[in-house]
Specification:
This protein is of the alpha/beta class and about 450 residues long. The protein folds into two domains: about 5-210, Rossmann fold (3-Layer(aba) Sandwich), CATH 3.40.50; about 245-435, 3-Layer(aba) Sandwich (Rossmann fold). The chain is built from 13 helices and 13 strands. It has helices at about 5-10, 25-35, 50-55, 65-75, 110-120, 140-150, 190-200, 215-245, 250-255, 280-290, 295-320, 350-360, 410-415, and strands at about 20, 40-45, 80, 90-95, 130, 160-165, 185, 205-210, 330-335, 365, 400, 420-425, 435. It has an eight-stranded mixed sheet with strand order 3-2-1-4-5-6-7-8, with helices on both faces. Strands 10-9-11-12-13 form a five-stranded parallel sheet, with helices on one face. The radius of gyration is 24 Å and the shape is elongated. Bound molecules: nicotinamide-adenine-dinucleotide. Nicotinamide-adenine-dinucleotide (NAD) binds near residues 27 and 171.
Length: about 450
């Protein structure tokens, strides 16, 4: 039998055991927060290598120090497992598994589905299940709940609580962390909402309740669609202003002095990461069911997807000015992760750039202090295993393309020692005739 007061009490007096499914960029920071508040966490992951690494007190994510993992393990607050039968040991289950797109750019819910199928046989009355993975409105109630109910013979809302609470993690953001970013929560019923808010209130400064799981699912998509569209807008303006001889970066610096009605977004070599290039298309797919078009999303996707090609075209244009060809040139990609100062290469436009430049006959190497070796990625398996070269080898290259602006790279060294530098991030400060923006 479920008992809301008992559940809330168990959170308050730290007796509630939290199960976190998916120990990745989202699941691990959540784990640290709960352990920090002295709640026990049992982490579940299908990747037994990650389970082993974490249980031996080591982190596999660069911006999460191993000391933090060994501290929560040594204090007895954390253990990782690949054994789903241990779901019976926890009171709340937070699901943080990937939600990518398929090869045909449709939502791939296979991770959510297989997680729900694995949990269902062990689900108990009185547990809370909260989905955190980004997804289209309707996933929690139309996809996850039926699997949980069928496999457990329990009823959502009556025997166990269900919520959707999107993750807003921004890895390595110096100004915000898991606990200080407000968290939107939607419940399957009012009681589900109360149970979920009680749990999240323990670790988050401000929870933001909404009326349904679907509203919470939609709120997350709105945030990421907003980013995708605004990035597309500055990418388009970048191409237009370039033709006019105007520097988009200077324009943004000027525009952002307006104290209201404007917020800066920055152009780049294309979208990267697990969220912005992917999430908007979850809505596009779902909208079709309602006969609705998502024209803004499609247009933004078109412009942002074109950016790596634009960088290649600009590079060829600048080489042409020097009377040289891309074919046969030795090219260094500077920065492999999709954003500054992290080691995450998922959907990174740098990987796409390597492909495009190599297709045109260039010899490509890369430098990234955060990514010593290219990991396996779903889309670019053939690049896995390649190693970062030292920046001191810059003089061996005909040109460099800066695609990520890390704070620990000496960009003036690149500008001073390479005949041509294509800067897609406004990373080089000062004026060098051989540095061209793209
Ligand atoms: N990374 C971010 O900054 C971020 C921010 C906001 C939202 N999100 C969303 O959060 C979700 C998770 O993203 P992430 O970046 O943490 O992914 P991730 O790949 O870093 O971690 C997911 C983990 O889930 C594990 N996993 C996969 N299938 C599983 C299963 N059936 N059972 C147990 N574990 C399983 C994987 O092995 C992996 O360790 C996604 O929906 C993503 O869109 C991510």
């Amino acid at each position: 039998m479920k008992d809301l007061n008992k559940f809330i009490e168990s959170v308050k007096n730290n007796q509630c055991v939290v199960g976190i499914v998916g120990l990745g960029y989202v699941g691990l920071p959540l784990t640290l927060e709960f352990c920090g508040k002295k709640l026990k966490v049992l982490g579940f992951d299908v990747d037994s290598e990650k389970v082993e690494t974490l249980n031996s007190g080591r982190s596999y994510i660069k911006h999460i120090p191993s000391e933090k993992i060994s501290a929560i393990r040594d204090s007895g607050y954390f253990e990782a497992t690949a054994d789903y039968s241990r779901i019976v040991e926890v009171d709340a289950i937070l699901i943080c598994v990937p939600t990518p797109l398929t090869r045909h750019r449709e939502p791939d819910l296979s991770y959510i589905i297989s997680t729900a199928e694995s949990i269902a046989p062990y689900l108990k009355a009185g547990q809370l299940v909260s989905l955190e993975s980004t997804t289209y409105p309707g996933t929690t109630e139309e996809v996850m709940i039926p699997i949980l109910e069928q496999g457990s013979e329990l009823k959502a809302g009556e025997d166990f609580w269900v919520a959707f609470s999107p993750e807003r993690e921004d890895p390595n953001n110096p100004n915000f962390n898991t606990s200080t970013i407000p968290k939107v929560v939607g419940g399957h019923t009012d009681e589900c909402l109360k149970a979920a808010c009680a749990l999240y209130d323990k670790i988050i400064l401000r929870t933001v309740p909404v009326s349904s799981c679907a509203a919470a699912e939609a709120a997350k998509l709105l945030e990421n669609i907003f980013r995708s569209i605004n990035i597309a807008l500055v990418n388009e303006l970048k191409m237009i202003f370039h033709r006019m001889g105007i520097d988009i970066w200077e324009v943004i610096e000027a525009a952002k002095t307006k104290p209201f009605g404007y917020m800066p977004f920055y152009p780049g070599p294309g979208l990267g990461g697990h969220c912005i290039p992917i999430d908007p298309f979850y809505l596009t797919w779902k909208a079709k069911e309602f006969g609705a078009a998502t024209r803004f999303i499609e247009l933004a996707g078109e412009i942002n997807t074109f950016m790596p090609e634009y960088v290649v075209l600009r590079t060829m244009e600048e080489l042409n000015e020097l009377g040289r060809a891309l074919k046969g040139s030795k090219l260094l990609i500077v920065g492999l992760s999709y954003k500054n100062d992290i080691d995450d290469t998922r959907e990174s436009p740098s990987l796409e750039l390597i492909n495009l430049f190599e297709d045109k006959g260039a010899y490509v190497e890369y430098h990234d202090p955060f990514v010593p070796v290219i990991p396996k990625t779903r889309k670019h398996m053939h690049l896995a295993g390649r190693k970062s070269v030292e920046l001191s080898s810059i003089t061996n290259f005909d040109l460099a393309v800066i695609s990520t602006k890390h704070s620990n790279i000496d960009y003036s060294l690149i500008a001073e020692n390479c005949p041509l530098v294509i800067d897609t991030r406004n990373a080089v400060s000062g004026s060098y005739p051989n540095v061209k923006k793209a």
